Amino acid sequence: MKQYFKVDEWRIIEEGFNPHFNKVAESVFSLGNGRMGGRANFEEAYSGETLQGNYVAGVYYPDKTRVGWWKNGYPEYFAKVLNAANWIGIDVSLNGEQLDLAKCKVLNFRRELNMKEGYLKRNFRAVTATGKEVEVESIRINSLADDEAGAISYSIKPVNFGGYIKLTPSIDGDVVNKDANYDEKFWEEVSKHTWNDGGVLQMRTKKTGFEVATGMKYHVSVDGEPEHIEAEPVTREKYIGTEIRMEIKQGQRVTLCKYAANLSSQNHPADEMMGLTQEFLERICHKGFDAMLAEQAAAWVEKWKQNDIIIEGDAAAQQGIRFNIFQLNQTYTGEDDRLNIGPKGFTGEKYGGSTYWDTEAYCVPFYLATAPQKVSRNLLLYRYKQLGKAIENAKLLGFKDGAALYPMVTMDGTECHNEWEITFEEIHRNGAIAFAIFNYVRYTGDEQYLADYGLEVLIAISRFWAQRVNWSAQRQKYVMLGVTGPNEYENNVNNNWYTNTIAVWCMRYTLDVIGKVKSADLAKYSELKYRIGFKEEAETAHFRDIIEKMYYPYDDNLKIFLQQDNYLDKEQTLVKDLSASDRPLVQKWSWDRILRSPFIKQADVLQGLYFFEDEYDIDTIRRNYDFYEPRTVHESSLSPCVHSIIAAKLGDIERAYQFYLRTSRLDIDDYNNDTEDGCHITSMAGTWMSVVEGFGGMRVKDGMLSFDPMLPAEWKALSFKVGFRGALLNVEISKQSVVIKTDSEEAIRLKVNGSEVSVSSEASLDLER
Ligand code: BGC
Predict the structure, then answer these.
(1) pLDDT per position as a tens digit, 331-381
(2) 682 lines ligand 1 (CB under 6 A)
(3) Which pLDDT score is estimated for 1?
(4) Residue 127 placed within a domain
(5) Chain-wide mean pLDDT for the chain?
(6) What's the CATH code of the domain at 751?
(7) Which range marks the domain in which residue 327 is found?
(8) pLDDT number for residue 469
């Protein structure tokens, strides 16, 4: 844990320039607006260690699969999130010497991510190799109000010299992905156009043919007065720039406001984008930087109204949760049902594709409570629309009759992960997709979704499970062989308890939903049955048989569920027996050693107990938690949050708090030594769950919210907001009381600490703790 950034409730602050942490800082200070985003790279040139990253949502490249040993069923390609044209660049030349912080003495460096108002600010003084000293300030936004726009205000003041300064704002499409299987460049130029104060560069992705027009326009002022300065366009392949030369006196401040636009052919006709981008730039440039900044602040105020969590008495915890909420809102706004939430969002390229089971298992609960219903519905519809491809995917692996296996990683529904133990075996992802339907309906009460879309997905998933199990004559039970559970530090195991459990749960839920849809809308049900060739009697009988006769590994002595068959054959060492030099295992040990070890990457049995807690008594949950947690290395960012929630449920508030800190400050403190690749966006939703479901004890049961609040000793008070069925609730937990307020005129029934109460805008609730 590094504690490199300063603790502040609304800001992330870096003081002093440490090139060693630059890539971590670039990730942490990333900006995004759901449509576009990027890492906190510098505007001016930087020859030090950096990972350049600008991303346009939904734009990807199918990078041909590269594996040593091809296996039938492998996907043809891995979908790469594409590093797109760099719109932030402003090259600075001081009397002919390029400003490059890697070659300067850097003084008073400060970077600040203002989460309240959504901007990134950087200040520094730099002394170049020849002794020229400049003072620089830059402020940058990715506009929420205009989600195809970005803007930068960049000012520079020569401190100890006067002379020629050349600023070259540019759009550079000659970019690469660090992670490219064949070191290929993924973009080709379509066209470019420059004019005196800007230009547009239109690029096309190879193979997928997405086109993105990236444009810029700028204003220059000197000591606050607008200056018209002759500028000269410079172009080369995949690049446009404008050289602005000025003679500046010592102490004068030059400010360049650069407005940028990113229009994608997903949203505009490609052949009109050049003109549309110019119009767009005119508009935002006319608006001006200050107005854009004010709009940005206002848009964030709106977001925070629904999203903020206030932790009193613990600034590090407060900063952590706000950072997570901020990044989630930067990544996905729910406006567009073709988009999803990549594990790294707009903060890095790692993990490729945009959609993992992370979305359903972790992100859906966050968006259900903090955004309008259509946002989580769009996340569900994304999978509904990809059902055809999930059926194709299952067919490729030998399944039939409409069985669906959703991909482990995808951009457009096609599987694009190519490690066999994950692609073919980590099939529990199907379960999370079904669980999200259940979760959405349980939370919103939108049962119509089941008839319109949900049931079709559920039947296809249940069909998959029904074909994936086999009957074991020896056990006289159904078994599921050759799988990888959520714990990816074990592959090709038999009877992963979590996978068997969620498979059976899916089939049970499917039967339940069939009943519901049949009685609510028989005609619709019959139409679906006919359309997908559902042999109701035979297929449901098969589901029932599996439900009844599934095998679950269990140890009678320890009275715990076994993560998989023979888990106890492993040498039962504990994480506390590992030395610091062994960690993280994934970086220090051979893969073979990890596979044979008892160490668990992330919640596995405990993930199941988290999802299905109502089916198990508290002692069962405790025994399994006490057994598995000491064996878990939490090397997936998705792990600490689930442990935090379970620890809170078990009343182990101190452990819950430790896990919370770890999950919420995972990236800020670079716990897993990998923040330089990007932030762990999807697990940030898990952080939110650990506050609201963990400390707030929030659950939804029988169409009603319930709260079992508790406070870590370190906190004076906690308050959070949740939207529920059209009402916004504000829950305030202090050492003395629980106060719940709502904007709803109608009384809302709730449960607090097990007792039913009601709350309305007229009568808020105030209970002693
Ligand atoms: C985890 C997976 C997760 C993926 C993307 C992996 O490290 O083990 O469960 O889906 O990261 O976040």
Answers:
(1) 999 989 899 999 999 999 988 768 999 999 999 999 999 999 999 999 999
(2) yes
(3) 59
(4) yes
(5) 96
(6) 2.60.420.10
(7) 308-355+663-769
(8) 98
Judgement on whether residues 438 and 528 belong to the same structural domain of the protein = yes
366 assigned to some structural domain: no
Write the DSSP string, 360-425: IIIIHHHHHHHS-HHHHHHHHHHHHHTHHHHHHHHHHTT--TT-----SSBSSSS-----HHHHTT
Spot the catalytic one: 14, 148, 360, 488: 488
**Based on the domain organization, do 394 and 291 belong to the same domain?**
no
Where is 28: in which H helix or E strand? helix 22-28
Identity (one letter) of the amino acid at 453?
Answer: Y
| Run of H or E residues at 538 | helix 536-549
* Strand residue runs (E) in 507-558: 554-555
Same domain, 126 and 173: yes
| Angle at 624 (CA atoms; ends 623, 628), nearest 5 degrees | 125
Cβ 356 under 6 angstroms from ligand 1: yes
DSSP line for 630-664: GGB---STTHHHHHHHHHHHTT-HHHHHHHHHHHH
Average pLDDT (460-489) is 98
447 in active site:
no
Do residues 347 and 679 make contact, with C-beta atoms less than 8 angstroms apart?
yes
Instruction: Please answer whether residues 53 and 349 qualify as being in contact, where contact means their C-beta atoms are separated by less than 8 angstroms.
Output: yes
Handedness of CA 100, 103, 107, 110 (dihedral sign): positive
Cα of 636 to ligand 1 centre, how many Å? 6
Tell me how far apart the alpha carbons of residues 485 and 492 are, in angstroms, rounded to a whole number: 9
Q: Total domain count for the chain?
A: 3
Ligand 1 centroid from CA 587, angstroms: 16
Binding residues for substrate: 357-358, 601-602
Q: Are residues 288 and 314 in the same domain?
A: no
Decide if 2 is inside a domain: no
Output the CA 638–ligand 1 centroid distance in Å: 7
CB atoms within 10 A of CB 188: 12
Assess whether the C-beta atom of 602 lies below 6 angstroms from ligand 1: yes
Annotated binding-site ranges: 357-358, 601-602
> Is 303:330 a contact under the CB 8 Å cutoff?
no
Residue 66, pLDDT score: 86
**Does one domain contain both 121 and 186?**
yes
The gap from C-alpha 483 to its chain's centroid, in whole angstroms, comes to: 25
**What is the atom index within ligand 1 of the atom nearest the CA of 357?**
10
Quickly tell me which residue has 């759901």 as its tokens: 34
Which residue's entry shows tokens 């949740």?
Answer: 722
Q: What is the chain's alpha carbon radius of gyration, rounded to the nearest angstrom? A: 27
Q: Are 58 and 151 in contact (CB under 8 A)?
A: no
Q: What is the pLDDT of residue 75?
A: 87
The one-letter amino acid code at 640 reads: P
Q: Rounded to the nearest whole angstrom, what is the distance from the C-alpha of residue 382 to the centroid of ligand 1?
A: 20
Identify the residue whose tokens are 């039947």. Answer: 459
Q: With 70 as the cut, is the pLDDT of residue 724 above it?
A: yes
CB-count burial class (<10 Å; 0-12, 13-18, 19+) for 222: middle
